[in-house]
Structures are given as structure tokens and as C-alpha cells.
Design goal:
Number of helices: 12
Structural class: alpha+beta
Radius of gyration: 28 Å
Shape: elongated
Strand content: 15-25%
Order of helices and strands: EEHHEEEEEEEHHHHHHHHHH
Distance between the termini: 57 Å
Strand order of the largest sheet: 6-5-4-1-9-8-7
Helix content: 40-55%
Length: 319
Amino acid sequence: MVMGVAVVEVFAPSPDFRYVGLEPAQARKLGVMGAALGLGAGVALAMSGTGLRHAVFAGALASLMSALALRGAGGTIPAPGGARMGIVPWGVLVETDDETPRILRWAAVRRVDVETSRAFSLLAGTALSSRVVVETEHDRFVGEALGVVQLERLIEHLGAYAEEQSRPLALDLEGTRAAEVSEPECEALLSSAYGWLDTANASTKLSLPPAGYRRTCAMAPSTQAIEVLRRVLRDRTPKTSDPRAFAAVVAAEVHASALAPELIQLTQCPHPLVAAFARQAARKLGVALAKTGTLDELAPFLFEGERARLDAWVESRPI
């Protein structure tokens, strides 16, 4: 009898890039090179009766002179769908005609493709370049960058990132109380965390001193609190609502500096608010900005007013 093995669903690995900038893709005009080579070939053919060496030399000289004479007619033209883009762990920013970029969350992106090719330049020699295609249900955007663009993890887990990003935040550590996703979740989560920390349930679960004593004396968290919060922050099992942002707030409020590595790991999370709370919690615990990154990267993916509330939380004292 063959026993089946249960497969436990887990979140995909977080994106392994911080920012990928792309310029609008260009379609190269071949008129200059084609005309130059054609003229050179014609001269070589016409002079083939004078000897192979003379014919080749004359053809090469004619090609070079033609390219120099016609260089103003060459260059590049915008490729169809060419767009300036920025790809970040939470989606794609597409430059538009006005000052506000178009924001594509992962749920709006149907496909991402990357093609790497070699281009030859008389000045730089052979160089690698990458062309990235981002497709939505109705649009196709094409950008390019010098070098190799590493987006393999995004291409593999695009659907999983969209799923993770769509989950509401939890207003508890168990993931049973979900915030309303149609409204800013930031204030609701902070209020719920503050309220819960004042309860006897929090004191028991995290082995904390009474709330009034915590407010007057900053103490190191108990070993039990570290273990409970670490388990939630490391848990990659999808739930109805995501409790990791709630745990990040609690970790900062009880001075759990030992959880800085777990918080830093979450700063690349595809869910923008989970990443934002992880960054701010780590900052609140004294982690350097160079390790956490700033909220500027996340701001386009947050509701209006949430950036200011998150900044205010960092400046406030832990309870």
C-alpha cells in the first residue's frame, strides 16, 4: 500500500531584487547599415574582374564611406509598447505622460518575459542587454536595460506573489480576524495591536508584566514572547488573513530586538503593508536604514495617509 504524502502550501520565496530600472525599448533602423553593405557588395561585384584582393578592398572602402555619409539617416525608433518602467517587489511602475506613474500590482500583471541578447558596438565591443516584456490583460509594455536582468524568481512565482499580496492583514496573531481590504488597514492594525497588548490574554501569551508597568518601564521581552512572535514572523503558511504585520508591530512595542533578522527578511515581502510594517518595526528597534530600506520604495503601493501614519508610528515611543 502506497501512503500519500501531504503537501503543505507555503508562500513562495520573496523577490530577490530591490529595483530594476528599464528604459523604453527601441527598434533599430537598418537603413544605414543595409545601404552601406549593399553598396559595398555592389562595388565588390563590379570590380571582381580586377582581382579578388582589389574587389574586397574596394567593397569594404565603399561600405565604410557609405555608412559615414548616411549616418544621419540611421539610429533607433521607439519599439511598439516601449515604456520606461521600474520593477520592485510589490509591482511595476510604468511612466506615463503625466507626472504620476501607472501602478501595476502583481494581480494586474499577466506575464513577464526577459530576453537577453548580445549587441556589437565599434566602441564597446560585444555587450549584453536585456529586453523585458510586461503584459497585462489589455496592454503590453517593453523596456530594456544594459546587462543581464535577474527576474527569474519573479517569472516563476508571479501568480504566487499576486495571491500573497491579495490577502488581508490580520488583526491578531492567529490570523483569524481580518482587516477590511477596501479601506486603509494601517490604522486598524495599529489600534488592534495597542488594544491587544493591554489585555490579560497578551500578558499570558507573551509572558509580559501588567500593562501599566510596561508603560512606565522599558523591559526586555520574555523568552516566551520572542518564541511566539518569531514563530509568527517565520510562518510561511498562507492563512485567511496575514498575521505577520501584526506580529511586527507587537515585536517593536515589546522591544524585541532579537527579532531584527526576521523583520529584515520581511522587508522584501510582496505584500506592501507587511513589508512596510516590517521596515518600520526594524527601524523602531534601531536597525540601520541601509538594512531596512525606506518607505519611499513602497509609497506608491500604499493608501493615501498610510505613509504618514507609519512614519508617525516610528517616532512614537514603544508602550
